[in-house]
Design goal:
The strands form four sheets. A five-stranded mixed sheet has the order 2-1-3-4-5, covered by helices on one side. The longest helix is centred in the last third of the chain and has 18 residues. By secondary structure, it is an alpha/beta fold.
Length: about 500
């Protein structure tokens, strides 16, 4: 029996061709979830021992016992052995759409425990666990659930935000492709806790394999979650729809743009009804909490960040993949010890944490513990826990420009700081890098424009203007798209001014 993942990354690396080669050689192949050791894909497991990364021509040597691609017992690999897997406890061990596999590895235990409790007791367990939203904001999940539970309404909804748009992130996709029943179970528990009869999973259109897996899993699990029902909705590819109110507009068939708050979605969300909106990893954490108790979950972590976080390591890194650990592991451990440093072998220059809107951290920040508050104090954010590594050949001025360009392309246009600020940001970064001062325009030279520049701005003045623009976007934007864009820009400017040619 040869076990090979059918995860999208494994498929992209040629897993289907390797599986076909094993079948052609007379072996029986079983397609399972991914272990998350992406640099070893396609990875084959035989009697617990791993071989990878494989190509079809490696199959004969694997079956003959002479392969130089052997990595030993998979479960004992150092990358896995140092993890603390709660969400991904079944990763690499089960067939994604096999109900027997899921039940045999602890599936439905959390839902059974929840159904044995009063709804308010389930909410109390989630609050007591200290679980915070894993989508980026870090808001206490139980508080959101309690608000929905206590809000009067004939109809309530559970909405799973699976619009995983941050570059370098893939944990949501791996849950949906590798352990879809876990997400179904988490949503059913949430429905019981707050009195919601229906849930929606909003998945980005770029995830065809996840969409297919979730639709199949929901159909197979109907009898387990009844009377709760779940429906998959596919997004149209707008990054801003990862913001919860934009997502709600999209679900309702409207333009995907940000809503002003209040009212909060917990009070008036989908179709104006009380709505729990959580991301995939948040909901996928709930079954473990219900099965093992809030105290056990709260005992893991660091500071106010409790439980585990699936950290996604990508970019110019030797050992890219998914690493789940309790909060508190340092950034340096993740990059150097777990990730193995850069794939190029050159020194690490920067690590972006939190997706395309996350801050760039230099090696001097490698002592930072992975914790919401610690990163906040360092002018950074954890976000969805994606790490992108850059070596010393990276141009951080160009990366700052990309942040503005990305925001300009993805802005919903609802608010001025984001819509216009991002475009002006691109212009400012270009002017600074070209060391070109900007002449006052026709409006600025008017006598009534008292605060406008009357003469050509120096590069230093352009830098000051860039910093002012970032402050306006950070505090004036309606949502995190415009509000977080200053993080990569200012961190790059602060730590690598030489890449801007400005100072």
């Amino acid at each position: 029996m040869v076990r090979i993942s059918d995860d999208a990354l494994a498929l992209a690396c040629g897993a289907d061709a390797v599986a076909a080669a094993f079948v052609a050689a007379g072996a029986t192949v079983e397609r399972v979830s991914s272990w998350g050791m992406h640099w070893l894909e396609p990875l084959a497991e035989i009697d617990g021992k791993g071989f990878g990364p494989l190509e079809p021509e490696d199959v004969a040597a694997v079956l003959a016992g002479t392969s130089d691609k052997a990595i030993g017992p998979v479960a004992d690999h150092p990358f896995l052995a140092r993890q603390q897997r709660l969400i991904f406890a079944r990763a690499g061990k089960t067939r994604p759409l096999n109900l027997d596999d899921y039940a045999a590895h602890g599936g439905w235990a959390g839902l059974d425990a929840a159904h044995a409790m009063a709804p308010e007791d389930v909410v109390a367990q989630v609050i007591g666990s200290g679980l915070r939203g894993r989508g980026g904001a870090g808001f206490p999940a139980g508080i959101k659930w309690r608000t929905v539970a206590e809000t009067t309404g004939d109809t309530k909804y559970i909405v799973c935000n699976a619009d995983e748009g941050d570059s370098g992130t893939f944990a949501d996709r791996m849950v949906m492709e590798g352990d879809p029943f876990l997400l179904v179970e988490g949503m059913a528990i949430a429905g019981h806790a707050v009195g919601a009869a229906k849930g929606f999973v909003y998945i980005r259109s770029e995830y065809p394999h996840a969409i297919a897996k979730m639709q199949a899993a929901i159909a197979l699990a109907k009898r387990h979650i009844a009377p709760f029902a779940i429906e998959v909705r596919v997004g149209a590819g707008a990054y801003v729809c990862g913001e919860e109110t934009s997502l709600l507009n999209s679900l309702e068939g409207k333009r995907g743009e940000v809503r002003a708050k209040p009212p909060l979605p917990a009070i008036a969300g989908l179709f104006g009804r009380p709505t729990v909106i959580n991301n995939v990893l948040t909901l996928a954490s709930v079954p473990w909490i219900m099965a093992h108790g809030a105290e056990g979950y709260a005992a893991i972590g660091f500071g106010r960040s409790r439980g585990t976080m699936p950290i996604q390591i990508a970019g110019n890194v030797r050992h890219g993949g998914l690493f789940e650990a309790g909060f508190g592991i340092t950034l340096g451990e993740l990059v150097n010890d777990v990730g193995g440093g850069t794939a190029s072998g050159r020194p690490v220059k920067a690590v972006q944490v939190g997706g395309p809107l996350g801050a760039y951290h230099p090696p001097s920040d490698f002592g930072l513990p992975f914790d919401y508050e610690a990163f906040g104090e360092a002018d950074g954010l954890i976000g969805h826990a994606g790490l992108t590594v850059f070596d010393d050949s990276a141009d951080m001025g160009a990366q700052a420009r990309f942040a503005f360009a990305f925001c300009a392309a993805e802005s919903c246009g609802k608010c001025t700081p984001c819509r216009i600020g991002a475009v002006r940001g691109v212009e400012l970064v270009d002017a600074i890098r070209e060391r070109a001062g900007r002449k006052a325009d026709a409006v600025e030279v008017l006598p009534q424009m008292h605060n406008a520049a009357k003469a050509k701005r120096t590069v230093a003045e352009q830098v000051t203007l860039l910093e002012d623009l970032c402050e306006t976007m950070k505090f004036g934007s309606l949502c995190a798209l415009g509000g977080f864009t200053p993080y990569p820009v200012l961190s790059a400017l602060r730590n690598w001014p030489e890449d801007f040619g400005a100072r």
